[in-house]
Design a protein that fits this description.
The protein is α/β, with parallel strands linked by helices and 187 residues long. The relative contact order is 0.23. Helix content is 27%, strand content 27%. Helix 3 (90-102) links the parallel strand 6 (71-75) and strand 7. The chain is built from 5 helices and 13 strands. It folds into 2 domains: 2-16 and 147-186, no CATH class; 19-144, FAD/NAD(P)-binding domain (3-Layer(bba) Sandwich). The radius of gyration is 19 Å and the shape is elongated.
Length: 187
Amino acid sequence: MLAKARGHEVALYEKRKRGGCPNKNSEKPHVCSVMEFTGDRNMELGQTVLMVGGGLVGAEIAYSQAKKGKKAILTTRRTSMFEVANDNSSPMQQRLMMKLKEYSVDIRLGLDLKEITDDGAVFAGADKAMTEIKCDNIVLCRGYVRNNKLYKELEGQVEDLYKIGDCVKPNLIGDAIHDGWVVANRI
C-alpha cells in the first residue's frame, strides 16, 4: 500500500512473505504459516502434519497435533536435540521434549527446506543428501521475511520515499503504526 502525506509518499505496508521457502511454493493449499494456523481455530489438518522449524512454536504445534492422534513430523536445521524448542526456559523445554517423546513426534535434525511439493517437502541434510518427506499438510514455523518489492519499484522515481512496517522487517501492527508516526513527525 502506498500513502501520501503532505506530498510525500510512504511505502506503508506490503503483504508479508512466508519465510524459509526457497521456491515460493508456500502458497500451495496444503501449506500454512504458523500465524495462519494459530489464527484459525477451525483449521483442520490431515493425518500427517509436517512442521518446518524446530523452535518453541514448531515443537508445540507438533505436540498438539500428535496429541490429537496425528502423525507429527518436526524438522529443524538445528543439529542437536538440546537445541529443539530451546527458545524457551529450560524446565519448560524439558517438559515439552518429554511430551514430544511421549506422543512419538518424529523429530528430524539438520534438515534445510529446499522445496515444497504437492505432497510434501524436500530437504537437504548436513551431508547435502536430499530427503523427501510426504505429508498431508505443512505448517511453516520459520517466521516471515520482509517484503520491500514496492519500495524497490518506487526507489529513484519518488523524491521522498520512506520504508516502514513489514517492508523494513516483519513485525506487529503496532510497530508499523509507530514507524509511521515517526516518519510523519519527520516530514
